[in-house]
Structure formats: structure tokens, C-alpha cells
């Protein structure tokens, strides 16, 4: 790390020990020194290499300081225009940001800062973003900011080609990863004008295979319903899906509704709920829906019994 | 609160008060990173104390002068010399020739001043027009959403900041506190139609709100509270409302029925979370989501208490995440209590008791008093 000289900067020291202060913080000497300098340089709007270095040090101690990101961006934009190789300069900034990202997984400013850099970049590349995305998802496979950023990249680069395979890999690792499941929906919503019937049939098979593996998993069932509604005008597969869902509920529909102990276990309450929703939409199968909701209330998902009774009321 | 009809209360009220009080006192240097958002610490503490019936205006009234110092007004360098104003989170952020006010610190400060009953401030000192103008400048003209701060030099909406439903909520809540009620009131400062369009674009396929179709209880609460403050909940279709109620109730973790099959297989499932709420599908329950989910449900249906059997979530909070030794609430049963989860855990309990204004996240009685006294 290069050493910069700040000796000519007159710091704007932070006031401490104020009267009637709430949540007084015992600042370290280092924090006071850094903030004193940063306040002075921001106030002067000095756009220089040493100011850039200082922002890195501030981000290290206070990554939530929104103005410092803004300041850093203005410095980068200014110095980029003075540098001989803009691409190289911005890539170096992205490299720096990768390191900061790894150390601050929950900070959200990082991601919008990254977006600003890519918008500034003359030749941005999705491929360059993949390693940091991978590291962050390996660390926390459901990190909302990281997933949102990945989706932003897909839209920014208009590139969705790797998304289904990527989501499949993550579902392979953890079949309960809801972020990966909703990523598939994101894919279809944004790619839906260019997809074939074969692809849709493959996707349906993918969902059914995963449900077969673990029937009691809310994510693929929710996704299945959304997927079906999204493409309801494109493919007729209602009976196939209904037959499939029925295989997870045994013969409970034909049994009398008695006490919970008399009812057998079934493999999936979500299958039963899926069927109830489907049956409820058609007056001819409404009785089945009422029975399915009653079974959910009595035995298979009793914590939501008042919801199931509410659904029955809606049907009547 | 939560006083059982017989027997002692399960809520360790005194410990909670002490917990919140501690956060308003001297904090170790490990809190330096939160210095920029110190108004958040103040808000969570004062809100927590108010929930536990501490007379905060008497106890902390002496600090109003220091609080007021965080309000910064800037005259812009334009032809009309218009002014904008708002709050910084900490005086460290008050930098000459740089605009550093932001929306979250502004809302946290305003709500704290309301709880401290500094009505004189609202009636005579706070410049509501310039404050609303600051909010207005945070709106993105292209999307209708809000960023949280302005470029420190140009005073245009920051191009480095993110925009999302949280900041939309905060923007609208600030305007509401400034007296905006009707659509015309809001339209004076922001493009309400465009904002509504943005909120509607964040609806997810199977109900609830989130970015790019991944529903999230926190964003759902922000979206619904915003719509409520804009008197626009009826913009949502009946199907979407029903789907959202269903989605929210599914966030209540259960150890019964088929759900117990998950205990061996799902790494993010714990049977002992029974009754608590999670933020998204297949995640552990977490104290704060009890508030986000309950607040959302309460905005959508008058039957919310019956639908989610509030005694179950009360048990989850009191038996699993309440810290009986230190006071406060933790995120889950493993971690120590933290301020954010302590405030929201307490808020969830107060909401169940009908004593809490969920849209503004302060006790209802305090808001009623404020509305009575300060009608602008
Ligand atoms: Zn939480």
C-alpha cells in the first residue's frame, strides 16, 4: 500500500464529549484521525490519489458511511478521465472492491457501488463478475443482495444463458435453497418470449424430479404453481401435474375425516395444498378442495388451521 | 405488557428497560461502524423504552438540544435559492460544503422526537417544506423509487446509492409525519403515481413483495406500510392480497403435521422454531420477522390475530428469543440479544396487544397524542 502524505491537510476534527449526547461512542484515536482527515477532504472535494486511499481506510472502519462511497465514486470518475487506460483503471477499482466485498458480506452499498462502476466502464463484462458472485454465494447461498446483484447483471448484460444451469447446481447442493428456485422463475419471466415448448416440458420434468426426491419442500411447489400460471396459455398439462401431485397424498381423499390419529401419514402437505388450490378453481371439484383443506387443518398442516378454514369459507 | 391474568408476567420488563437504557449510554469503540447511523440506535432504544411504558420524554428531555443539532438545512446554489433539510445520523457526518443528510436517519430522528414529545420542534423549528423537498429530490424520475441520499456536491439523487422498497417506505413515512395525508398532499412533493407503479412492479408471482420475484417479509412490510400511508392498499387485487396473506402465514414455522419430515433433511429448519416467523421460504425463524409478518398481516386483514394464532408467536418470542438474564431479544436462540431484534421483538408483542402503530413503528398512544397536538 502506497504511503501518502496528508501533512498539509488541516483536519476537521470530530467533536467529542458533547453535552447531553446520547449513545456516546468511545472512538479510537485512529477513527478520530481518519474521520478528521476525511471530513476535511470531502469538504474541499479533493479528487486525488491520496483521497482515494483515505476512502479505502474509512470504508474499512465504517462501511455504512454512505457519503464515503459517493465521494470515492467521484474520485474514481475524475481520475479515470485522467488515466491513460480507463479500462485498466476501472478493473483495478473492481479488484479492490472484490476484496472489500469478501470482508463485508452484509453491506449493501457495495453492490450499488459496483453497479455504478459497471455503468461507467467502457467494456463491462459479466464474466468478470462471476468469481466474486460465486465466492459470495458459496459463503451464504441465500444472500439476498448477492442474488439481486446477479439478477441485475443478467438484465444489464441481457445475458441469461448460464442462469438455469447455475440455479440447478445450487439446487443440487441444497434442494431447499429458495433463492435458487426463485432464480428459475426470474429466468422464465425474463426469457419467456424466446423459449420453446420442449424447454418448458424439460423444466416441468426438472421440477417433478426434484419434488420426487423431497416431496415436503415448499420451494418447488410454489415455483410449480407460479410456473404453471405463467405459461398457462402455452401448455396444457393440468392433468399430468394433478396426477403427479396426487401420488403424494395416498388415499386420504377417500377416507372419512375422523380424528387425526385415524388418518395415515402422507408424504407432502404441499402436494395436498397444491391440489386444494387447483380443485378450488373449478366448481366440479370444489368438494375435493374443501376436503383437502379440512385435512390440512386437522392433521397435515395444523398450525395454519385458521387459514385453511378461511379458504373453505372463501369456497362456499 | 403480556400480563397473564394470574401468575407473574413472562416478560422481563425491568431487564428490557435496562437493556434499552444501556444503548443510550456510553458505547464501546466496537460501535464506531454504526456511528453514521446513530439515529437508528437512538430510535430503536427509545421505541423499545416507550413500548415498556418508560416516560421517555421526561427521562431524556434534556437531550433534545443535542438531538436538534442533527437537523441540517442547506440553501441550494440555484436561481431560487431553495432550501433542503434533513437529519444526519451523527454530528461526525456534518461536514461543511457537503450534503450528508439521508432518509433513514431523518425518519429515525423524527420518530424519536415524536416519542420525546418535542412538539415545539415540529410546530416552530422544523421546516417541513424544505424537508419534503429533500425527500422529493431522492425520488428517481425514471423508476419512481427512492434512493436514500443525495450526491454530496450536486444535491441530485445519489447515483451510487441503491433504490428499494425500504427507501420508498421511509420517504413516504417522512412526508406523512410532515402532514401529507391525501394524494394531492403527497403529489405536491413526489410523483405518487410513479411510486405506486414501482411498488406494484415489486409484487412477486405467488404473493408478497421483493426484488425480482424473490418475496421477502421485510420488503413486504415496507410495501404494505407505504401503501397504507398513501391510502392505496385497495390498488392491490383481491387475488394478490389473498396470495400474500397465504404466503405470510406460511412463514410461520411449524413442527407439526408433515413439517416435521423436514427436520432430518432441511439444514435451515429447526422444530423448536415452532410458532416463530421466517423472512423467506426455507429459512430459520427470526425475531424481527415476527414483526414484519404480523405488521403485514395486520394491514391486509382484520382477522390477522385469529389467522396466525398470536399466542404461538408470543410463546416463540418469550420462550425462545427473549433473554431473561440480560434483557432484550436475540435474532434466534443462539445469539446474544441485539438492539434491532430487541426493538422489533418488543414491537411484535405490542402490535399483538393492539398498542402499536405498525406503519410508523411507534406506540399508538404516542402517535395519537402527536396527531392531536400537531395538526399542520
Ligand atoms: Zn432478523
Automatic annotation (TrEMBL), chain B:
<dbReference type="GO" id="GO:0005953">
    <property type="term" value="C:CAAX-protein geranylgeranyltransferase complex"/>
</dbReference>
<feature type="domain" description="Prenyltransferase alpha-alpha toroid">
    <location>
        <begin position="13"/>
        <end position="354"/>
    </location>
</feature>
<keyword id="KW-0637">Prenyltransferase</keyword>
<dbReference type="InterPro" id="IPR041960">
    <property type="entry name" value="GGTase_I_beta"/>
</dbReference>
<dbReference type="InterPro" id="IPR045089">
    <property type="entry name" value="PGGT1B-like"/>
</dbReference>
<keyword id="KW-0460">Magnesium</keyword>
<dbReference type="GO" id="GO:0004662">
    <property type="term" value="F:CAAX-protein geranylgeranyltransferase activity"/>
</dbReference>
<keyword id="KW-0862">Zinc</keyword>
<dbReference type="InterPro" id="IPR008930">
    <property type="entry name" value="Terpenoid_cyclase/PrenylTrfase"/>
</dbReference>
<dbReference type="GO" id="GO:0046872">
    <property type="term" value="F:metal ion binding"/>
</dbReference>
<keyword id="KW-0677">Repeat</keyword>
<keyword id="KW-0479">Metal-binding</keyword>
<comment type="similarity">
    <text>Belongs to the protein prenyltransferase subunit beta family.</text>
</comment>
<dbReference type="InterPro" id="IPR001330">
    <property type="entry name" value="Prenyltrans"/>
</dbReference>
<protein>
    <recommendedName>
        <fullName>Geranylgeranyl transferase type-1 subunit beta</fullName>
        <ecNumber>2.5.1.59</ecNumber>
    </recommendedName>
</protein>
<keyword id="KW-0808">Transferase</keyword>
<dbReference type="Pfam" id="PF00432">
    <property type="entry name" value="Prenyltrans"/>
</dbReference>
Amino acid at each position: 500500500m502506497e504511503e501518502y502524505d496528508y501533512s498539509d491537510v488541516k483536519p476537521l476534527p470530530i467533536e467529542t464529549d458533547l453535552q447531553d449526547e446520547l449513545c456516546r461512542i468511545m472512538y479510537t484515536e485512529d477513527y478520530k484521525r481518519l474521520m478528521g482527515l476525511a471530513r476535511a477532504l470531502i469538504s474541499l472535494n479533493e479528487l486525488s490519489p491520496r483521497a482515494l486511499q483515505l476512502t479505502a481506510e474509512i470504508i474499512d472502519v465504517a462501511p455504512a458511511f454512505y457519503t464515503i462511497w459517493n465521494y470515492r465514486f467521484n474520485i474514481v470518475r475524475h481520475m479515470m478521465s485522467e488515466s491513460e487506460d480507463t479500462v485498466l483503471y476501472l478493473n483495478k477499482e473492481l479488484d479492490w472492491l472484490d476484496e472489500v466485498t469478501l470482508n463485508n458480506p452484509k453491506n449493501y452499498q457495495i453492490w450499488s457501488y459496483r453497479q455504478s462502476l459497471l455503468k461507467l466502464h467502457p467494456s463491462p463484462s459479466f464474466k468478470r463478475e462471476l468469481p466474486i458472485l460465486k465466492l459470495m454465494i458459496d459463503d451464504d447461498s441465500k444472500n439476498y443482495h448477492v442474488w439481486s446483484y446477479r439478477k441485475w447483471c443478467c438484465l444489464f448484460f441481457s445475458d441469461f444463458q448460464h442462469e438455469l444451469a447455475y440455479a440447478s447446481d445450487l439446487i443440487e447442493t441444497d434442494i431447499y435453497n429458495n433463492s435458487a428456485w426463485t432464480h428459475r422463475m426470474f429466468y422464465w419471466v425474463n426469457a419467456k418470449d424466446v423459449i420453446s415448448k420442449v424447454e418448458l416440458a424439460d423444466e416441468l420434468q426438472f421440477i417433478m424430479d426434484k419434488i420426487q426426491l423431497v416431496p415436503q419442500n415448499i420451494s418447488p411447489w410454489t415455483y410449480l404453481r407460479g410456473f404453471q400460471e405463467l405459461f398457462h396459455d402455452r401448455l396444457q398439462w393440468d392433468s399430468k401435474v394433478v396426477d403427479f401431485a396426487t401420488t403424494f397424498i395416498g388415499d386420504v381423499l377417500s377416507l372419512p375425516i375422523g380424528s387425526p390419529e385415524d388418518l395415515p401419514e402422507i408424504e407432502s402437505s404441499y402436494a395436498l395444498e397444491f391440489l386444494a388450490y387447483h380443485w378450488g378453481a373449478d366448481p366440479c371439484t370444489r368438494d375435493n378442495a374443501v376436503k383437502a383443506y379440512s385435512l390440512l387443518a386437522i392433521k397435515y398442516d395444523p398450525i395454519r388451521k385458521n387459514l385453511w378454514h378461511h379458504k373453505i369459507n372463501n369456497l362456499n | 405488557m403480556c400480563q397473564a391474568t394470574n401468575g407473574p408476567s413472562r416478560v422481563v420488563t425491568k431487564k428490557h428497560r435496562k437493556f434499552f437504557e444501556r444503548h443510550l449510554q456510553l458505547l464501546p469503540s466496537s460501535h464506531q461502524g454504526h456511528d453514521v447511523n446513530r439515529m437508528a440506535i437512538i430510535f430503536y432504544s427509545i421505541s423499545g423504552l416507550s413500548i415498556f411504558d418508560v416516560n421517555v420524554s421526561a427521562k431524556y428531555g434534556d437531550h433534545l438540544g443535542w438531538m436538534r443539532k442533527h437537523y441540517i438545512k442547506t440553501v441550494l446554489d440555484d436561481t431560487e435559492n431553495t432550501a433542503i433539510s434533513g437529519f444526519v445520523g451523527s454530528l461526525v457526518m456534518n461536514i461543511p460544503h457537503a450534503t450528508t443528510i439521508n432518509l433513514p436517519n431523518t425518519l429515525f430522528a423524527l420518530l424519536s422526537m415524536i416519542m420525546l414529545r418535542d412538539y415545539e420542534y415540529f410546530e416552530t423549528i422544523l421546516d417541513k417544506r424544505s424537508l419534503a423537498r429533500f425527500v422529493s429530490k431522492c425520488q428517481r424520475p425514471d423508476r419512481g423509487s427512492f434512493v436514500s441520499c443525495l450526491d454530496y456536491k450536486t444535491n441530485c439523487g445519489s447515483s451510487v446509492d441503491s433504490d428499494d422498497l425500504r427507501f420508498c417506505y421511509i420517504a413516504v413515512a417522512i412526508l406523512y409525519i410532515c402532514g401529507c395525508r391525501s394524494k394531492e398532499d403527497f403529489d405536491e412533493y413526489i410523483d405518487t403515481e410513479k411510486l405506486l407503479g414501482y411498488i406494484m412492479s415489486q409484487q412477486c408471482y405467488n404473493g408478497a413483495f421483493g426484488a425480482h420475484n424473490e418475496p421477502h417479509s421485510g420488503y413486504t412490510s415496507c410495501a404494505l406500510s407505504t401503501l397504507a400511508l398513501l391510502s392505496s392498499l385497495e390498488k392491490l387485487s383481491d387475488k394478490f392480497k389473498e396470495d400474500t396473506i397465504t404466503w405470510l402465514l406460511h412463514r410461520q414455522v411449524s413442527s407439526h403435521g408433515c413439517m416435521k419430515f423436514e427436520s432430518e433433511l432441511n439444514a435451515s429448519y429447526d422444530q423448536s422454531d415452532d410458532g416463530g416467523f421466517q423472512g423467506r421460504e426455507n429459512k430459520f425463524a427470526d425475531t424481527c420477522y415476527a414483526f414484519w409478518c404480523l405488521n403485514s398481516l395486520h394491514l391486509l386483514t382484520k382477522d390477522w390475530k385469529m389467522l396466525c394464532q398470536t399466542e404461538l408467536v408470543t410463546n416463540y418470542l418469550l420462550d425462545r428469543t427473549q433473554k431473561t438474564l440480560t434483557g432484550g431479544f436475540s435474532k434466534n436462540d443462539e445469539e446474544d440479544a441485539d438492539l434491532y431484534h430487541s426493538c422489533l421483538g418488543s414491537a411484535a408483542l405490542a402490535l399483538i396487544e393492539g398498542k402499536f402503530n405498525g406503519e410508523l413503528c411507534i406506540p399508538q398512544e404516542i402517535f395519537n397524542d402527536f396527531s392531536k397536538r400537531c395538526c399542520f
